[in-house]
Specification:
Layout (H helix, E strand, L loop, with lengths): L2 H4 L4 E5 L3 H7 L5 E5 L2 H6 L5 H9 L7 E4 L5 H12 L5 E6 L9 H9 L4 E6 L2 H11 L5 E5 L1 H6 L4 H12 L5 E5 L5 H10 L3 E4 L1 H6 L7 H19 L4
Parallel strand pairs: 1-2, 1-8, 2-3, 3-4, 4-5, 5-6, 6-7, 7-8
Helix pairs in contact: 6-7, 7-9
Length: 239
Amino acid sequence: MNDLVRGLRIKIFADGADVARLTELAADPLIKGFTTNPTLMRQAGVTNYAAFVQALAAQIGDRPVSFEVVSDDFTEMERQALVLHGLGDTVYVKIPITDSAGVSATPLMARLAAAGVRVNATAIMTLEQVRAATRALGGGPAAVISVFAGRIADAGVDPVPLMSEARQIVAAHANLELLWASPREVLNVVQADRVGCDIITATPDLLRKLDLLGRDLGEFSLATVRMFCDDALAAGYEI
């Protein structure tokens, strides 16, 4: 870990669903928390959600971990959220900002917060959604507002101005933290840190690239040339 990485103010949460890999990352002091979601779990071959949740919760020590509900029905979401909340004081329950029909989940978030559940409002991509989640969760127990800045960028929109304004909205409530979700590159970590986001998620692939932060570009260019040369020679390419 280089000095620039150590100097980041933002908290880095490991994002994934490989329990063995996340357990390794739990030994890294750089990692301040953990997140996962049903898509990552399916990609990792998780078949038993309850067993996965229990296994990961047992490995991450006293750092926060976010688990998502796996229902599209608000009544069932609420039941699942209370079950997840019961796993321990470090657990945050991820509630998507709407159901799959676009109906707002903020009334559910407000009920859960009133019951003492630490909510991670997820899949947020607009400032109105930020405001709605903030109204539902502000003033309650600790909660996270997860804005999917990487997906905003995938739509061709610069996420930095939006995240800057989201930071101002969230900062009005001491119990809320703003999370930059779905980063694609090391630059996003720098951007999130500059904006003042509290948390950024990072997959193992992105975590492996963090030591590139601040690398001399001339040296990086030379290393890239050597990589191309070595690979061409190793493959025996001829023209």
